[in-house]
């Protein structure tokens, strides 16, 4: 899942980003509304975690722009105000969910995951294919009943492949969904991660390389 965190309190923004990355999400961070508009114009995000009171361009205007562009991106709006009228106003702007500060990180993560599921074709909460069971919420993977421990990026790559339901996923698409914008697009990180993932999943191999196209399960 690709997430953009937009928050002018840099310590909070960086802490949220770090936490979401530990949950196997690819996260970009910006600290004002102008930078947010630049990012959503370039990258495809599943979810934007958007502070309402932003410098340069207000969070309300960023939300309006995302809605106007007709993007499938979901918006989780944050605010220091817990007033009900503020929540209603935020939702009326086009936000998909609203979370007042301070918040529990576990709740933020759950809401981001829930919104991320709404950007794609509805799938069961536990993904199953070729003897693999993947639970995105519990961050658990099993093959033929045996639990497999995966690093966050390995988990993210496997989740993208599982969600594709047998379709071929290119290396570029994996890079976009599982890594943030600071990753060198010419790196071999996708190939190395897939190799490690194959080894951990064991025999017989379930990840197939489609020459010149990408990977599928």
Radius of gyration: 18 Å
Query: Which stretches are low in confidence, meaning pLDDT under 50 for 5 or more residues running?
Result: none
| CATH class (first level) name of the largest domain | Alpha Beta
Beta-strand percent range: 15-25%
Structural class: alpha/beta
Function: Member of the two-component regulatory system CutS/CutR, involved in the regulation of copper metabolism. CutR suppresses a defective melC1 gene, encoding a putative copper-transfer gene, probably by altering copper metabolism.
Organism: Streptomyces corynorhini
Protein name: Transcriptional regulatory protein CutR
Keywords: DNA-binding, Phosphoprotein, Transcription, Transcription regulation, Two-component regulatory system
Can you describe this structure in just a few lines?
This protein is of the alpha/beta class.
Structure report:
- By secondary structure, this protein is α/β, with parallel strands linked by helices.
- It has 2 domains: 2-117, Rossmann fold, CATH 3.40.50.2300; 127-216, Winged helix-like DNA-binding domain superfamily/Winged helix DNA-binding domain (Arc Repressor Mutant, subunit A).
- Helix content is 41%, strand content 20%.
- It has helices spanning 10-22, 33-42, 59-68, 84-92, 105-117, 152-163, 171-178, 189-201; strands at residues 2-6, 26-30, 47-51, 74-79, 97-100, 127-129, 132-135, 140-143, 146-147, 208-210, 214-216.
- It has a 5-stranded parallel beta sheet with strand order 2-1-3-4-5, sandwiched between helices.
- The mean pLDDT is 90.
- This is Transcriptional regulatory protein CutR.
- Member of the two-component regulatory system CutS/CutR, involved in the regulation of copper metabolism. CutR suppresses a defective melC1 gene, encoding a putative copper-transfer gene, probably by altering copper metabolism.
- Pfam families: Response_reg, Trans_reg_C.
- InterPro entries: CheY-like_superfamily, OmpR/PhoB-type_DNA-bd, Sig_transdc_resp-reg_receiver, WalR-like, WH-like_DNA-bd_sf.
- Residues 124-217 bind DNA.
